[in-house]
Design brief:
This protein is α/β, with parallel strands linked by helices. It is built from 13 helices and 10 strands.
Length: 297
């Protein structure tokens, strides 16, 4: 069996709301290791009905992540999808878990850490939980792995990625934060958004699907695939310019209130993306300040 483990990041959107105990915002302030231990205790004692991760997450980004398995099958692989989660660690999407709210995104109400160093420590704690899978072992067994993660999650998983590189398993990293010796990285390229379709939020997963389309059947990395991808990307790249309309604070505040009433679990980052997708301009810090004054942290 030509197994291909595929690692993607989870999403903040869930099909059911988490209980207050499983929202990272309710963790006590203080030492990170103590907070991680408390989070583990809450997960273990959760009394709400667990859901398979593939059914727990939702949104366009997650639909695209699930669709990667179809792309991998067409490329000659037997895919197995894993989710990298700031609340659970690395788990197969078939595994069960209660709904929760935890993220590595900075300045989010449910952010579990405040720096990339802390994120790495938190991730190491998560990987000690029952049900978490070791990335290096997953890749070693299969002989290959496709990792599709944002820069934020790559920072959190940096030690795992270095250990993965040392295994010698055939590895492609889509997105990520930096080059890792021993891993072939395909950085996110916003100039390919028009060719790949969708929004920047799902750019990494769409890039991964395109990489699989360019693969030599049954081989994740080959000179032919790299040449084919490089030629296509060079031809398809289209730098984007944005003609957004500046708006007053009142318009931004009204938008934030409306969107939070419709999507109460949406992060500030997601709301800013939605705001800009509507053709309106707002500098990131200004939006953050208005969000905080309107909604809170």
């Amino acid at each position: 069996m030509n197994e291909l483990p595929i690692v993607v990041t989870c999403t903040d959107r869930k099909t059911s709301p988490p209980t207050p105990a499983l929202q990272a915002r309710t963790l006590p302030a203080g030492d990170l290791l103590q907070r991680a231990a408390e989070w583990a205790r809450r997960l273990q004692g959760a009394d709400n009905r667990p859901t398979a991760l593939q059914d727990l997450y939702q949104g366009d980004q997650w639909r695209r992540a699930l669709a990667l398995t179809d792309a991998a099958t067409r490329a000659g692989f037997a895919p197995r999808l894993y989710a990298a989660s700031a609340g659970l660690g690395l788990r197969p999407v078939s595994s069960l878990a209660p709904s929760y709210a935890a993220t590595f995104l900075p300045r989010h109400a449910d952010s579990v850490t405040s720096s990339s160093h802390e994120a790495s420590l938190w991730w190491e704690c998560l990987q000690q939980l029952d049900g978490a899978h070791d990335l290096s072992q997953v890749a070693t067994v299969a002989g290959r792995v496709l990792v599709v993660v944002s820069g934020t999650y790559a920072h959190a998983m940096q030690h795992d990625l270095r250990r993965l590189a040392a295994t010698g398993a055939e590895t492609v990293l889509i997105g990520g934060a930096c080059e890792v010796e021993g891993i072939l990285r395909v950085p996110a390229n916003a100039d390919l958004r028009q060719a790949l379709g969708g929004t920047l939020t799902s750019l990494n997963t769409r890039t991964a699907a395109s990489w699989l389309e360019h693969c030599t059947p049954g081989r994740l990395i080959s000179p032919q695939a790299q040449a084919s991808w490089g030629a296509w990307a060079a031809q398809a790249a289209r730098p984007e310019s944005y003609a957004r309309t500046p708006v007053p604070d009142g318009t931004v505040i009204a938008f934030i209130k409306e969107m939070k009433s419709i999507y109460p679990d949406s992060s500030r980052t997601r709301l800013l993306r939605l705001f800009r997708d509507k053709g309106m301009a707002c500098e990131q810090k200004r939006f953050a300040d208005l969000y905080t004054s309107t909604i809170g942290r």
